[in-house]
Amino acid sequence: MDLEGFIEGFGVKMPKGRIYQQGKRLFLFTGREVPLRDRYKDGEGLRLASVAENDFRPTIELCQMATKGFLDVDEKEAVTWMCGMDLKKEIEADYVIIKYKEYILGAGKPRGGRIINSTPKNRRLPLKWLP
Amino acid sequence: MGSRSRKKKGVEKVREYHEALLGDEFELFESWLTKPLRKSLRLNTIKADKGWILKRLKEELGTGPGGFEEVEAIPWCDEGFWVPDRPWGATLLHQLGFIYIQEAASMLPVELLDVGENDVVLDLAAAPGSKTTQLAARCGTVVANEPADQRRKVLFSNLYRCGVSNCIVTAKNGQDFPDDVGFDKVLLDAPCSDIGVARKNSKVLRTWSKNRARSLAGLQKKLIARAFELLKPGGKLVYSTCTSTIEENEEVILALLEHEPGAKLVKPRTKAKSRGGLLEGAEDVLRVYPWDNDTGFFFVAKIMKKR
Question: A123 and chain B: CB distance < 8 Å anywhere?
């Protein structure tokens, strides 16, 4: 999967802006282009995804722009997911976006009866909350 | 010297300084400095509208003691709320970027900058990003500058968590920031001696000294001079600190006014209870004391660059 496929597959509604790749990361910049020399810039815009050969990992923020294709989970599964643990679920898809009530929690890759979790450490809930 | 005696020495210096500074209000200072800080947060309207987030907040808190009934709007910031004491950093609302845990008084500088949706705004000392994310929700483009690597990492993390897509991050020393761009608005929330955060973290009192405040004032004067240079004619600068000393506040403003004939101090208008400046020529600023609104100390000055 790539960004285009993800946008189409999940009905992503993205604000207008410039999408660019820096190294293995995709970004969206929606601000005005200002005449600041590139060498002063350390970063620009919102991280959308990590991309590598045969691997596309959307950020929570990109997932939160999605409008369809959600996998609804219950509270126990939501906390398990947000603690960084995989979910035991048999699903056939390239990707699923996990949703708990009104909250979009991020995307996971189904593989071998599990949904593989790649929630960054700084976005997880404390492990002591694990059900 | 043991940490206990070091702490005592620092606290003594703080007491001595504030006894002279505050006069009749010194007793209030003593009693308020040890009161725990009231928890507050700001709704991040970049990710969802205010009503949606308030609904989720209501679900999170429920009713009864410590429930949603205890949520109270902060009068000077539409998105700011005082909330019951909870580990907010470990909630879905926080981790998914719908709220930012932010001290109520620290919401003032952005409120007073009057940013418009097409403005290009510089946040000259941006980390950890509370005010940058507040700005990003209101203006066209933010340039967020932070020279310290570790602090910049935290800034990036908060920008991503809050879904900020209209921000450019730079890593220059503020006083050397390049003049490639003329900014509509500049926010300088300057590094300071942090007396204002003592209610949250009493450790700041241990290391406080008048000499340190003076040394920081030297840096603050360089930063405000550069911040002013980077403004377009007609642009506005807000200078703020979370400390109470005259050296880091009124004296910094007076130094700018003295060196820049194009700088004009504008009286800030806010719903927060406050008082004016303590030095002649710098009366039209905001001094917010903990007992005014149940916050930390805060100082805000608003300066306009004449056309």
Answer: yes
Q: Is the same domain home to A85 and A115?
A: yes
Any idea which fold B105-305 has?
A: Rossmann fold (3.40.50)
How far apart are the C-alpha atoms of B157 and A73, rounded to whole Å?
Answer: 26
Choose one of A23, A43, A63: the last residue of a domain: A63
At residue B292's C-alpha, the angle toward residues B290 and B293, to 5°, is 80
Q: What is the CATH number of domain B3-101?
A: 3.30.70.1170
ipTM: 0.96
pLDDT in tens, B92-126: 999 999 999 999 999 999 999 999 999 999 999 99
Q: Of the candidates A30, A37, A59, which has its C-beta nearest B180's C-beta?
A: A37
What values do phi and psi take at A25, rounded to 5?
A: -120, 145
Residues of A whose CB is below 8 A from B143: 34, 36
